[in-house]
């Protein structure tokens, strides 16, 4: 497993639309292993393939808290089948927008279908942090980053902050 560099805004690759995976193969699994390693190293709770520059519909996630055992989830070609009307608000962050957090409103429950690590179809309802996180990650597959939901002023400020953060990092 390899930790790969995570792309940050305003990298135009993050705006790309990712493509469906035809078949879950050993190569897909190797990519998912790298994504998980990269996510843990960051550290983060979710990562979409495009964040490491691969435009494929793949997401990894682990929502376990510090004291819990890992709860790794892999999503290939995730699709939302249904959403409820009720919205919930979470303070979101993103590995592609380091050190920026803001609130986003999304449906509080979604019915999701995807292929797992072994290419097996899973269909389930997600709620709470899981629902928020999967919607956030699925936005990445459509070229959308959470700061796109914020006002222009906040978005510009976030991008500037990331550029400054990256500059400091490269100088150290
Ligand atoms: Zn993100």
How would you summarize what this structure contains?
By secondary structure, the chain is of the alpha+beta class. The protein contains three helices and seven strands, in the order H-E-E-E-E-E-E-E-H-H.
Describe, in plain words, how this protein is organized in 3D.
This protein has 172 residues and is of the alpha+beta class. The protein has a single domain (12-171), classed as Peptide Deformylase, CATH 3.90.45.10. Helix content is 29%, strand content 27%. It has three helices and seven strands, in the order H-E-E-E-E-E-E-E-H-H. The protein has helices at residues 26-41, 128-141, 152-171, and strands spanning 46-48, 58-62, 72-83, 87-92, 102-107, 109-115, 121-127. The strands form two sheets. Strands 1-2-3-6-7 form a five-stranded antiparallel sheet. Strand 6 (109-115) and strand 7 (121-127) form a beta hairpin. It starts with 25 loop residues before the first helix and ends with a helix. The mean pLDDT is 96. Bound molecules: zinc ion. Zinc ion (ZN) is lined by residues 94-96, 136, 140.
List the helices and strands and how they pair.
Elements: H1 26-41, E1 46-48, E2 58-62, E3 72-83, E4 87-92, E5 102-107, E6 109-115, E7 121-127, H2 128-141, H3 152-171
Antiparallel strand pairs: 1-2, 2-3, 3-6, 4-5, 6-7
Residues 94-96, 136, 140 line the site of zinc ion (ZN).
């Amino acid at each position: 497993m390899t930790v790969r560099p995570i792309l940050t805004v305003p990298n135009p690759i993050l705006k790309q639309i990712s493509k469906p995976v035809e078949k879950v193969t050993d190569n897909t699994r190797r990519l998912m292993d790298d994504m998980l390693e990269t996510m843990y190293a960051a550290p983060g709770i979710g990562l979409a393939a495009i964040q490491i520059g691969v435009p494929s519909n793949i997401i990894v996630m682990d929502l376990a808290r510090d004291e819990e055992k890992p709860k790794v989830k892999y999503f290939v070609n995730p699709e939302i089948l249904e959403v409820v009307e009720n919205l919930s608000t979470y303070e979101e962050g993103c590995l592609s927008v380091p050190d920026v957090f803001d609130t986003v409103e999304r449906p509080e429950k979604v019915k999701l279908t995807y292929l797992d690590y072994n290419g097996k179809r899973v269909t389930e309802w997600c709620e709470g942090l899981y629902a928020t996180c999967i919607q956030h990650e699925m936005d990445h597959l459509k070229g959308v980053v959470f700061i796109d939901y914020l006002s222009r002023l906040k978005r510009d400020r976030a991008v500037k902050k990331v550029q400054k953060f990256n500059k400091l990092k490269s100088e150290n």
